[in-house]
Amino acid sequence: MRIDRREFLRGAAGAGCALAFGLKFFHFSDDPAAYAAEVEQLVRSTCSPNCTGACGYMARISNGRISTLIQAADYPEDSYNPRGCLRGLSMMDLIYGKDRLKYPLIRTGPRGSGEFRRATWDEALDHAAGRLREISDKYGPEAIGTTVQVPGTGYVQKGAMVALAGLARWTMHHGYDQNGDLPMFWPMTFGVQSEELESLEWINARTTLIFGSNVIQTRLPDAHHLLEAKRRGRVVVVDPDFCSTAAKADEWMPIKADTDAALGLGMARIIIDRKLYDAAFLQDFTDFPILVRRDTGKRLLAGEVPALAADARTRTIPDYRSLFVIRSGNDFRILDPEKLDPTGAELEGEYQVTLADGSTVTVETVFTALQRTLADYTLDKVAAITGCDPAQIERVTVDAATNGPMHIIYGASNYQWYNGDLKGRALSLLPVLTGSIGKSGSGISTYAGQYRIRFNVKS
Ligand code: SF4
Prior knowledge:
The chain is of the alpha/beta class and 459 residues long.
């Protein structure tokens, strides 16, 4: 039987806990009745800060207070056990912290003086309502803005806030207007908010590239999945800092802060120049074969091409869709968005098209347009922008493109900074070009917080 270090430590920790509990539960007191009264309950609970991990905990209650928190380790999928981190284990400092607010306070001194008096809920609610009414009467109800942060963390109270804002005609912001929590490149590139991998899936990647995410420290309950991914494949960390995750990786690529977009474009160019891309995937699942007009940068519409216009008029498509054009053999063809049949579509090419008004324009596939953009991102130029070693960029890129599935973790510290959308769009090219999308252990993941377990990926 093979026991790895994690299982050994888990066993040792379990034995230690059992011993400690055993000594406490079965301790040799002179007064067992007094001890039984002291140990009241063992309660299954969760840690629920906005980290959103919701790790399961057992809370031991003694004399009406939590005396100990222990990871519950009762998830049906054993590789998730135990789950938790030191922040969760330190929750008692918050729950019983001396500054914790337990009842309403009304300020009595100047701002910052720390002078408050205790109030009843009725008084506090009347006070708040009165001040809000004053603002509303003086400046109009729209002068009061409300925001609900991450609706998923409390539907009832946040629903109540939305209802109140609607009734009182206050201005209401969406939670994400305020915190920019989610990566904008996702809807721009993929048309959905985000589709990150469940962490148990990390182990199915053969190459993991991490751009500005310190997984070992910030995703502690899932960090062991990354170490398992390293055992099965390669993990490369691209980060300005030799952070704890870089220290555990197969390779660290130091980079000048915030230059990931240039690196992503440079790596994409290498993949294309060396023909390491998955042409069939690009043809079937991306917009790369669609033709764009060189003069406007917009996609060519079937209605603009005389040979296709009559056919285009007969097609029924939703208002929000358009009939684009692809090149197939020697012909232009309509790409019907309701059928999406790109069979035979050329991935590369530049053509002349005579439009209905008699003018001629140059069109090219999206893939060809991308290649023209990437022409600026030579290895030397990318190395100069990013500070990365050109030989390392080339080796890591070729290695990643030829050892899939490729999984990219793009950290929140990176995508929540300036141009996070552009960096994300550039980095998305790497899994897209290599067809590492929609398969186990592949894709690009962005995590803001420690995500809770959402499904059992083994079943
Ligand atoms: S990962 Fe998040 S939810 Fe889990 S114990 Fe730590 S702080 Fe709590």
